[in-house]
Amino acid sequence: MAKTISPTEAAVKFIKDNQIEFVDLKFMDFPGQWQHLTIPVGHFSEDSFQQGFGFDGSSIRGWKSIDKSDMLLVPDAGTMFLDPFIQAPTVSFVCDVFEPATREKYGRCPRNILQKADAYLRRTGIADTAFFGPEAEFFVFDDVRFDSTANSSFYFVDSVEGRWNSGREENPNLAYKPRTKEGYFPVPPTDQLMDLRNEMVRNLIRCGIEVEAQHHEVASGGQCEIDLRFQPMLKAADQLLLFKYVVKNTARMNNRTVTYMPKPIFGDNGSGMHVHTSLWKKGKPLFYGEGYAGLSETALFFIGGLLKHAPSILAFTNPTTNSYKRLVPGYEAPVNLAYSQRNRSASIRIPMYSTSPKSKRVEFRCPDASGNPYLGFAAILMAGLDGIINQIDPGEPLDKDIYDMPPEELKDVPSTPPSLEEALKALHNDNEYLLKGEVFTEDVIEAWIKYKIEKEIKPMALQPHPFEFGLYYDC
After folding, report:
1. What are the strands, taking DSSP E only, across 229-337?
2. Position 65 pLDDT exceeds 70
3. What is the DSSP letter of 207?
4. How many CA within 13 A on the CB side of residue 209?
5. Portion of the chain with pLDDT greater than 90, in percent
C-alpha cells in the first residue's frame, strides 16, 4: 500500500524534484491587495511551515505601528502553485500571519478572520461547509493614464473595443466595436479578446484553478468574465486572489492591463462580483427544499439575514468610493434589497438552471471585486448564519423587473447605501452579528472604518473633480 504523504511533504518534494530556485510568500494586507516576500530555496525547508519567516508589518496598510512591527509569515502548504510569471523557477504559497511573541494568528490578518468564520460555522452545528463561487468581472484596457496634482486632475482609459473609437483613425479602423451595453456574448471579430481570455484560462488551469467558462461581458471597451468552479469558503477566497493575479499578469504579458475597478467607464455597465453561496452538512446540501424556488427554510432564513444586514455587509463587499458609482439604477446593478428566482434586477437571485439539489444556492449580486474577499465572504456568511439562528423572515419575493416598476411600488423596498460613507455608517450601527464567535473583533471593525474614512473618503472629498469645472467654473 502506497504511503500517503502530507501537503507539507508533497511541497518539499515538489521543490526538490523541480529544481525550484525561489519561494514566494504571499499574504493579504488589510484593504485587499496581495503582498509578497521572496526567499532563496536554500533558506526553505520542511521546518519553514512551522517556524515561518519574520518580516516588518509596520508598512502594511491598516496594520501595526512601527513600535510593534515584528511579525511572522507561515506558509500554508496546501496553497502551493508554480508561478508562471517569474523567470526563475519559483513556487508561491499563501501565508497566515502570526504574532511572533505569542505564536497566535494576527487579529487583523484577513485570512485569519475568514478561518474564524469557518470555525464558527462548524461550532453552530448548522453546517460543516460553506461553498462560495464568486464571479469577478473585469475590464481589459490598452492604455490607462491618470493623475491628480495640486493644479490638475484627469483619467484616461482606452480600448480598441471601445465604442467611442468607432470614428478613430486606426490605419485602418476595422470597426466591430461593441455598442454600449451590448457587449454580452458576441463572437469574434466583435469579441477581440477571445485569444487573450483563452490564454488567461490556460494559465489559471496551470495554477490549479478549475475554470467553467469564459466570455465577453456587457460593457463596451473590453469587459470580460471568467467563471470559476465553486469551492469551500477559504479556498474560494485564496483562489480569487490567485485568479486576479493570473489575469492581471497574463494581460500585462500581452501589453494590456486589467482592472477590477467597479466603474471605470461612464455611461456603461460596471464590473460586479456576484457571489454564489450554499451550506452543506455531512455531504448534504442544506439549501434545497420544498419552498419558494426550491429553497429550504434554512436557505430562506439565510436570505433574511443577508437582506437585514446588507447595508453593513456592503462596507466590506463594496468597499470603495467607486463601488457606489456602479450601484445605481439603469446598469443591471442590483440596488434594491429584494430576492427573486432568475430575476437579475434583485440583489439576491436564486439561479434556476438545474433541478439538482446540489446546485441549489443563493446568489448575492451586490458585491464587486475591489475589496478583500476574506472579509467580504466572512461578512456574508455571518449575516446568513444570523438569519438562520434568529429565523429572520426574508418577506415575499419580488418576481418583477424592478427597473420597470413605478416609484410608488418601490417605496417600501429598501435599497443599497448610496455611498461608501453610508455603508460605513451602517457597519458602525450594525455589527453585532459579525462579533459572534469572535470572528470579527471591535478592533478590526473600528480599524476598517477609520482606514476607509481617513485614506479614501476624506481625501476624495478634498480633491477638486474635473466635472466640477464644467458645473461651476463660470460662477
Report:
1. 231-232, 257-259, 273-281, 284-285
2. no
3. T
4. 28
5. 83
**What is the dihedral sign for C-alpha 111, 113, 116, 120?**
negative
| Residues recognised as catalytic | 56, 135, 137, 217, 225, 274, 344, 363, 365
Q: Mean pLDDT over residues 56-75, rounded?
A: 80
Cβ pair 326, 271 in contact under 8 A: yes
Confidence bin at 333 (pLDDT 50/70/90)? confident
Q: What is the dihedral of CA 411, 416, 420, 425, to 10 degrees?
A: 70
pLDDT at residue 406 tops 90: no
* Of residues 272, 448, 451, 453, the one with CA closest to residue 370: 272
Q: State which H helix or E strand residue 77 sits in.
A: none
State how far the Cα of 85 lies from the Cα of 404, in Å rounded to an integer: 47
pLDDT band at residue 2 under the 50/70/90 scheme? low
- What confidence category does residue 125 fall into, taking pLDDT thresholds of 50, 70 and 90? very high
- Across the chain, mean pLDDT equals 93
pLDDT of residue 354: 77
In angstroms, the CA 335 to CA 345 distance is: 8
Residue 367's nearest CA partner among 382, 383, 380 is: 380
Compute the distance between CA of residue 45 and CA of residue 108 in angstroms, rounded to an integer. 27
From the list 177, 224, 220, the residue with the least C-alpha distance to 204 is 224
Mean pLDDT along residues 27-31: 92
Long-range contacts of 293-297 (CB under 8 A, 24+ apart): 293/341, 293/350, 293/352, 293/397, 294/350, 294/352, 294/355, 294/360, 295/350, 295/360, 296/360
> Minimal CA–CA distance to 274: which of 402, 371, 137, 398?
137
Distance, in Å, from the CA atom of 238 to the CA atom of 231, rounded to the nearest integer, reads: 10
Alpha-carbon distance of 267 to 397, in angstroms, equals 30
Rounded to an integer, what is the distance from CA 387 to the centroid of its chain?
23
The average pLDDT across 174-193 equals 92
**What is d(CA 117, CA 437) in angstroms, rounded to the nearest whole number?**
8
pLDDT (0 to 100) of residue 300 = 97
Q: What is the pTM of this model?
A: 0.95
Residue 401 contacts by C-beta under 8 Å, 6 or more apart in sequence?
Answer: 343, 345
Distance CA 210, CA 201 (A): 9
| Alpha carbons 28 and 246: distance in angstroms, whole number | 16
